[in-house]
Each structure stands twice: as structure tokens, then as C-alpha cells.
Description:
Blueprint: H1 40-59, H2 64-76, H3 82-93
Helix pairs in contact: 1-2, 1-3, 2-3
Amino acid sequence: MTTDKYPNDQIQRDPDPPGRALDVDKQEPGTPAAAPEPVDAEVESARLLANEVRPVLGAEGFSDLRIDELADAFIARNIGQGSEEFLRWAREEGQFPSGEDRVL
Length: 104
């Protein structure tokens, strides 16, 4: 990249940008169909964990769906072990997804 065409501009620019937006591939390389399926043990562990902490997180305002999503991520990503670690992590993640591809 160069700034030759824009000497007073501090932003680096591509010297040969695509001609039109149609020339840019916006499709992500990994699609949901290509994502690996969780193994049965992970699914079962996540369900057990979610059910164990559901009364606590539910009382704090977490929806059942959010608790399930967090439990799935906690187990699949091997973030920690046990309900106490999960509760701390779930509270940090919050009641609602952040909009990033962090958990979901």
C-alpha cells in the first residue's frame, strides 16, 4: 500500500483497489455447514452445567437460551471447569450477546 496519490493523507490506501463493490468477496471462508459438530459428551456436559446453574443465573436475569449458549461455549472452548468457574465467566460475558463472535 502507498500514500503517493494522497500526500497529505495519513491513511494508507491500496494502489489498485477493486473497481466495484461486486469485486470484493464478503463471504466468510468458514460457513456454518463447515463448522465441526460438537461431540455428544460436550453437548451432555453443557446441558448438565446449564441445568446446575440455571436457578442462580436465572435469578440474576439470564434467559434460559443465554444460559444454554454460554454453557455450550464454556464447554466447547474448554474455558474452565466446574460451576463456580462457569458462574464467574458467565457473569463477565453478561446477559446479552455483545454483538461480537465471542460466544455465539
